Amino acid sequence: MVGEVQKQPAEIRFAEELARLAASDPGPRPPGWRLSPRAVRAFVTGDEARGVTRKFWGDDALVDRCIVSVMGLQGLLLVGEPGTAKSMLSELLSAAICGTSRLVVQGSAGVVEDHLRYGWNYALLLAEGPSARAMVASPVLTAMRTGQIVRIEELTRCPPEVQDSLISILSERTLAVPELGEGTEVRAAPGFNVIATANLRDRGTHEMSGALKRRFNFETVESIRDPAFERALIARQLADRLADHPAIPAPAPDVLDVLVTVFRDLRTGRTAEGETVAQPSSIMSTAEAVNTVHAASLAAAYLDGGPLTARHVAGQLRGVVFKDDPEDGRKLRAYVDQVARPRARSSRAWAAFCDGT
């Protein structure tokens, strides 16, 4: 239908929950915040009494530290392996704190200072010269003016000289605009801050300067340690993705168990029984597990016309493992022979998994 989109920002997807929290939020709010810190925490980690769902399935103490960090005068930098929900956490925090998560800069080698400061409408610049009307604000500058959170994805993929343009913004809360006259500057309104993300295992990244590091509080987002937590998260995210496919049923519990176990075994290099397995170089994250079971569900329903089985999961797993190193194929085959096949002797789901590899 016209007007539909594949994914809405968090403040729209969860608008009812945010309104419910705001209506029952007596707690003190930091300057510029739409919700109190306790309500922000409830939005992210869930509050059954108020009908608020859990959205971040990780370390609740990490969420508390992130909220406290954003209240201060340092930025928040979420670091961790790819697929550990760093971006999702930054989106949720921004939506709850300031009502929008859409002030975003996507870090890359092509980012220039204009993306973090301001640029110009060159037609107006040529016609009028430097003026406020000709200036094109970056998401960072917009956040400063409005007292909101700006998100910078993959900060360490930006060139170092571009990264360092944040130093004065974070330390002085000021952005000078000399083109508009001596002393012209923008000072951040209450509520402004920066939440950035960075991957620990990524190619093409740049080291941050010591000066910029001092302007951020670093928080590491770990992989989910509790298998039950991870299974619940995968089931929840799969249900969200399949909302437009009502004819596709939820996966059977034994299929989800196989999926979660395979990813945890290969991610950690050790089974729950203590057996060592070779770890592939590919990222075996929870996000990849969701992608795998989503693709497997679509294949089962639309190509095979039947229920999802562990055989479909195995068929889609190859696209996750075979990405970087040809040696990963040998590691997966060894895992199937040494770990999966013995399990298949007493489990139909594991037998189906082996049939699909």
Low-confidence stretches: none
What is the total number of structural domains?
Answer: 2
Number of contiguous helices: 17
**CATH topology call of the largest domain:** Rossmann fold
Computed over alpha carbons, the radius of gyration is 23 Å
Could you give the count of β-strands? Answer: 9
Strand % is 5-15%
Biggest sheet descriptor = 5 strands, parallel
Shape descriptor:
elongated
Structural class: alpha/beta
CATH homologous superfamily heading of the largest domain:
P-loop containing nucleotide triphosphate hydrolases
Look at the structure and give the CATH class of the largest domain.
Alpha Beta
**Percent in helix:** 40-55%
Explain how this protein is built:
Helices cover about 50% and strands about 10% of the residues. Helix 12 packs across helix 13, helix 14 packs across helix 15 and helix 15 crosses helix 17. The mean pLDDT is about 95. A hairpin with an 8-residue loop joins strand 6 and strand 7. About 40% of the residues are buried. The strands form three sheets. It has a five-stranded parallel beta sheet with strand order 2-5-8-1-9. It has a two-stranded antiparallel ribbon with strand order 3-4. The chain folds into two domains: about 210 residues, Rossmann fold, CATH 3.40.50; about 130 residues. The chain has about 350 residues and is an alpha/beta fold. It has 17 helices and nine strands.
